[in-house]
TrEMBL record:
It comes from the Bacteria. This is 5-deoxy-glucuronate isomerase.
Length: 302
C-alpha cells in the first residue's frame, strides 16, 4: 500500500496469496544497534560491527587513518560504500582511487580496501562467506533455516567479465524513479535520497515481501520501523505490532512476510540504505530504476 506520490505505486501488483493458509512463516526482525553495542572486531585498523540477514551481511567500520581491510579468496562479489571519505581499492593487479560518496562492487578473489584518511567504511557481503557470517553479532539467529526464503542464487556475471565497478552516488533525483538503485551479482542496494526532517506521517508506505528479506542500514539520523505480522490460522504465528526506534549507525533486517514501513524521525538529515540479496526482479524490470543495469545483466538476458 503506497501513497500515490511513491514511485513504487507503479510496481505490478503482487500475485494474490492466501496468507491465512500459510503457517509457520514467522521469524523475528534482527536489530543491530551499532551506536550502542561493542564492535565484533576491534583491531589497529579500527572498529567493525557485523550484522547479518539470511543472504546478506553488513560490516560497518570506523577505520583508522591508513587502515587496510583485506579479503583473501573472497568467494563472490561484494560491495563497498564510501559515504564521505575516499579509498584505494586493489584487485587482481588493478588499483583504483575512489572518492567519497561512491559505491563500488569488488569481484571475487583477493582484494584490499585502504582508507588513507580513515573514516566510515561500509562493506556488504553475501552470507556464502561463512567466516564473516559466523562473526556477526546475531550469527545464531539463523541456525533455524528460513524455509520460505529460496536458496541463494547469484545473478549473471557482469558484461565484459570481472573488474572493479565504481559508481558516484551524486545522482540527481528523477520523477518516477525510486531512490538510487545499483545491483551486482549478489546484491541490490538502494541508496535512498537523504530526508531532511521527519517524514510526513500521512504518506507512509506499508507493504510486505513474500520471500525475501530487506535490510535497512541507517547511516545518519533517526528512524522508526513499523512492523506488523499478519495473522494465520495458527495462533503460534501471531505477534504484537512493533515500532522499532533506531538512530544511527544501525541495521534492521525485516523478515518476510512482515508488513513494514519506516518513518524518518530525526530533526536533521536522515540517511537510509535498503539492501536485498540477490537483486530484486521487480525493481530490475522498471526501466531506468537500476542505474548500472548496462553493466549487470538479469537472469535470462542474452
Amino acid at each position: 500500500m503506497y501513497d500515490k506520490s511513491d514511485p513504487r505505486s507503479s510496481l505490478a501488483p503482487k500475485s494474490s496469496t492466501n496468507a491465512m493458509a500459510q503457517t509457520g512463516l514467522i521469524a523475528e526482525q534482527q536489530e543491530g544497534y551499532f551506536y550502542a553495542s561493542d564492535p565484533q572486531v576491534l583491531t589497529d585498523a579500527g572498529k567493525s560491527w557485523l550484522h547479518r540477514g539470511h543472504n546478506f551481511l553488513v560490516a560497518y567500520s570506523e577505520a583508522a587513518r591508513g587502515a587496510t581491510f583485506e579479503r583473501k579468496a573472497q568467494i563472490d562479489e561484494y560491495a563497498v560504500i564510501l559515504p564521505k571519505v575516499g579509498a584505494v581499492i586493489e584487485w587482481n593487479g588493478t588499483r583504483l582511487d575512489v572518492p567519497g560518496n561512491s559505491l563500488v562492487f569488488v569481484p571475487p578473489g583477493d582484494s584490499t580496501v585502504t582508507l588513507p584518511e580513515g573514516g566510515v567504511l561500509v562493506r556488504l557481503f553475501s552470507t556464502q562467506n561463512t567466516d564473516l557470517a559466523e562473526a556477526c553479532g546475531n550469527a545464531r539467529a539463523y541456525d533455524t533455516p528460513r524455509t520460505h526464503i529460496p536458496p541463494f542464487q547469484p545473478w549473471p556475471e557482469p558484461k565484459g567479465g570481472w573488474k572493479i565497478h565504481a559508481y558516484s552516488l551524486d545522482v540527481p533525483s528523477e520523477e518516477g524513479r525510486f531512490g538510487r538503485i545499483f545491483r551486482c551479482t549478489t546484491l541490490m542496494i538502494n541508496v535512498l535520497e537523504p530526508f531532511e526532517g521527519p517524514r510526513d506521517p500521512s504518506k507512509m508506505s506499508p507493504h510486505h515481501h513474500d520471500d525475501f528479506e530487506q535490510g535497512s542500514l541507517a547511516l545518519q539520523g533517526g528512524f522508526t520501523h513499523y512492523l506488523r505480522w499478519a495473522w494465520t490460522s495458527d495462533m503460534a504465528d501471531w505477534r504484537e505490532d512493533k515500532a522499532v526506534e533506531m538512530t544511527s549507525p544501525s541495521m534492521l533486517v525485516i523478515p518476510p512476510p512482515v508488513i513494514h514501513t519506516t518513518r524518518a524521525t530525526g530533526a536533521g538529515c536522515n540517511e537510509l540504505i535498503d539492501i536485498f540479496s540477490p537483486p530484486r526482479m521487480d525493481f530490475s524490470m522498471k526501466p531506468g530504476w537500476v542505474l548500472n543495469a548496462d553493466d549487470y545483466p538479469m537472469p535470462g538476458d542474452t
